[in-house]
Design goal:
single chain; 182 residues; alpha+beta; NADH Oxidase; 7 helices; 41% helix; binds flavin mononucleotide
């Protein structure tokens, strides 16, 4: 797939098959993250790749207890009978974190996440940005994050739900052209 086609056709995927992606595909996605641009090329980010079902279940139980009711309802509606899962039951969940002491940590992590989404799409996987572990929730989930290997000083800037898509995504929201000025 050519780069422009990849950018134009990528979608957020919110329904996954339980099948684990092949190691080679997973490595491609993680490598794409490492090759993202970062402020002064400091690469302060960390990528914790989680496939452990028990950890994911415990994480979701805790997240369910701290997210607001509207977010819970929207998630349950999307997950159907499968029940609450902030990562939509994806078999792979990648936590992207960095030390907030660096001014560009959040920007760097966002670049890495987008690289992952595009690489995933290029190799036939689906992905979605998952925000429920970030900001104030990060503190509340610190023990779980430490257990998974997220460095103590780090803040979670975003996570990537990853796996094989199980359903076609809903129609795309129209892109506004009034955001461009020449
Ligand atoms: C900073 C950021 C946070 C997001 N957080 C979530 C999230 O927590 N859960 C979710 O399902 N989608 C999340 N998304 C995905 C957006 O909803 C999605 O990108 C948007 O609806 C456009 O759809 P598309 O990605 O298919 O083009 C997030 C996207 C961004 C950039």
């Amino acid at each position: 797939m050519d780069a422009i086609e990849c950018i134009m056709t990528r979608r957020s995927v919110r329904s996954f098959k339980p099948d684990m992606p092949e190691k080679e595909k997973l490595n491609t996605v993680i490598e794409a993250a490492r090759y993202a641009p970062s402020g002064m090329s400091r690469q302060t980010w960390h990528f914790v790749v989680i496939t452990n079902k028990d950890w994911l279940a415990r994480m979701n139980e805790r997240v369910y207890g701290i997210v607001n009711p509207a977010s819970k309802d929207a998630n349950l509606e999307r997950n159907g009978a499968k029940g609450y899962s902030c990562n939509y039951h994806s078999p792979v969940f990648i936590v992207v974190s960095a030390d907030p002491a660096y001014g560009t940590s959040g920007d760097d992590c966002a670049c890495a996440l987008e690289n992952m989404f595009l690489a995933a799409h290029a190799v036939g996987l689906g992905s979605c940005w998952i925000n429920q572990l970030g900001k104030e929730n990060c503190e509340k989930l610190r023990d779980l994050l430490t257990e998974a290997g997220v460095p103590e000083k780090d803040m979670v800037y975003g996570c990537c739900a990853l796996g094989y898509p199980d359903a076609a995504p809903s129609p795309r929201k129209e892109r506004s052209d009034s955001v461009i000025y020449y």
